[in-house]
């Protein structure tokens, strides 16, 4: 049986992502206006294993955080991290980002969603998700969202799949429609979700990193069910060295002292709830 995106994510998430979402998370939280402080109340929406929360707690240990995700396995990981680090002022909930109705209006100073949108299999979920983020923010609060601008590494999987089964269309579970990779898409979701003209978008660069090309390939192969779902074990074994070669050929592949990495570009969208969203200028 194919894993759902949520179950696939819930184990080995950080290894599979090679730190790329953590690097993005640091950029998201470092450039906020108003900034996060120890008195902020933050919703880490679609929190995964709690990477955004962890980065916040490193800088602002007393900040109050609610971390939510639809995958119980992710929430278990967050609970484990809370206990391990002895964090106070932090709670968790299993919630769908499209429906935060158990959360009151106007409570949060910051709502952060790192790579949670759109919901897999629901490409039109954007405005619904943003409406909920907007609703739970207080006036003066800020929502931050990140989405991918490119996914250069998908072509390496595609080429590896075609090398093994040249006459079969490769799996496309992870493929996003090109319009979802545009800056204009993230702006539109924020506008339609309620932020009106109080919206900004920026680009960010991040990397999936490993100590060696072999390790990087092994990390990425943790997602093999999403790319080689119909392959036999023997075919998957043959695909791995081809994937390794394909990764090394990517435009953004680099070797550096201490390892290798693949560069990726993302968008950061910021919406501020000013309370003037309904005003229409003449
Ligand atoms: C790419 S991960 C991002 C995780 C995390 N924010 C980070 O910084 O790495 C996407 C997350 O969205 C969660 N997710 C998927 N669909 C969801 C939904 N409908 N509601 C809430 N979370 C969802 C998944 O379980 C996964 O943890």
UniProtKB/TrEMBL annotation:
Claim: DNA-binding is one of the keywords in the record: no
Biological processes per GO annotation: methylation
Domain of life: Eukaryota
GO MF terms, alphabetically ordered: methyltransferase activity
Keywords: Methyltransferase, Transferase
Record InterPro entries: Methyltransf_25, SAM-dependent_MTases_sf
Official protein name in the record: S-adenosyl-L-methionine-dependent methyltransferase
Provenance organism: Hyaloscypha variabilis (strain UAMH 11265 / GT02V1 / F) (Meliniomyces variabilis)
Residues covered by the Methyltransferase domain: 42-141
Signal peptide extent: none
